Amino acid sequence: MLRTHMTVTTIRQLMEMKIIPCFSLHRKLAGAVRWRSSYRQPPVLIAAPARALIDEQISIKGRFLPPHCPVTVHSQMHSEDGDLWEAFAHYNADADGTVSLTRDHSVGGSYSGCEPMGLFWGLQPAPGAREGLRLRKKNVETPYVVHVSLLEGHVSPSEEQSNELAAVTTERWYMAPGVRRIEICQDGVVGTLFLPPGTGPFPGMLDLWGMGGGLVEYRSALFASRGYASLSVAYIGHKELPGPQNKINVGDSYFKSAFHLLQDHHQVCADRIGIIGLSFGVYLTLRLATNIGVKPSCLICINGPVGSTIKLSDDDGRTENFEGDQKYWMYDDQGHVSFRAVSLPANLSPESKVKIENLTCPLMYIVGEDDLSSSSIENADLIEETLRAAGKSQLFTRLSYPGAGHLIEPPYSPNSRASLWSVKPKKLITLWGGHLAPHAAAQEDAWKKILDFMENNLRQ
């Protein structure tokens, strides 16, 4: 009687000796091959570390694949609003049956080349998604949960027949373990304070965003995860602030109070506080830094103007309605609006322009050269020229990034070239600019240099 552990070679020999009839050869061969393949290690997908901060790289590797086989690596996640975001890339396994995103080059998909974090910064709304989406973390006490899968062949994730070989889930956090989140409603200031683990005292950062409004916390949470007390402040479009919400109804005293609130905290180094601003937050940062009674140790300005892009209603910095003056709004062929011309230095009201020559602390200005929302290059030029004329060139550092847009944020987060600005009185999509790969490279480089700048000016 024949035993089931016979090899393929043995079966062929017995057939030639006419001990096994020819018609049974194929069934015996198939059984032997299935027996051998059942002991092959199935493919696995590894992400290390699987739980990490948003600015940390992770290593993604597929193993136990057939040599040189084509595969697709696919990432997907749901935003807090329930929208599906995804990215994918095509790879070819090496002779050992391994694919490593830190070593290998994508040959197609959402990105190409060696991009270890392309599956994260390359995330875009899935086909059929709502128009004008932008990915922003609202609840920083929960992570982004990203599902990464390994698919057979070079496929598009939308193809229904794609065969999943392996999968892994990763968590991307803005808050490190031990970081404390404290809601602030004090001295009229509305914000959120993030404190690093431990007793301190810690150097601090005052965090100012743009005219999108509300209270944006994720950058401050990440600063605290890197050892800085950080206070994110709301100043427009928040229910706890004076209305109406499409105007800035707080003035210089409000921002001074926010700075002093951070400065007076018992776990903060009072003489080691910086200010960071993005977009309109740049104007507020510069205005506050030249205000009597406020002495920051350093400033970080990202793609913003030296004066107000909205007509001021008083000398204290309050503004008129944002939509009130649309003279410099520009529209593309799809009806999407660019605010870039609004912030050209020549178009800013002279009375709102900050006296840059009065700055006394180091300033880092970050430029996205494809910024479609702010005239960042022209404003950086004006700051540089003004400081040079005042004999203060040593205070100025410029970082400039070709292909990067307006929203230069912490690294490995995806860029939106355009997104929904408002729905009333009419639906409006605004242009931010930036192309995925160069924008991602800019965010990674700028973040490292921001942390170095803070280290040099707030810790030493």
TrEMBL record:
Organism field: Lates calcarifer
Domain Acyl-CoA thioester hydrolase/bile acid-CoA amino acid N-acetyltransferase: 55-185
GO biological process, alphabetically ordered: acyl-CoA metabolic process; fatty acid metabolic process
Family from the record: Belongs to the C/M/P thioester hydrolase family.
Entry-linked Gene3D superfamilies: Acyl-CoA thioester hydrolase/BAAT N-terminal domain (2.60.40.2240), alpha/beta hydrolase (3.40.50.1820)
Organism domain of life: Eukaryota
GO molecular function term, any single one: fatty acyl-CoA hydrolase activity
Active site positions: 279 (charge relay system), 371 (charge relay system), 406 (charge relay system)
Segments forming a coiled coil: none
Gene that this sequence comes from: LOC108898918
Residue stretches making up the BAAT/Acyl-CoA thioester hydrolase C-terminal domain: 253-459
Protein name, UniProt field: Peroxisomal succinyl-coenzyme A thioesterase isoform X2
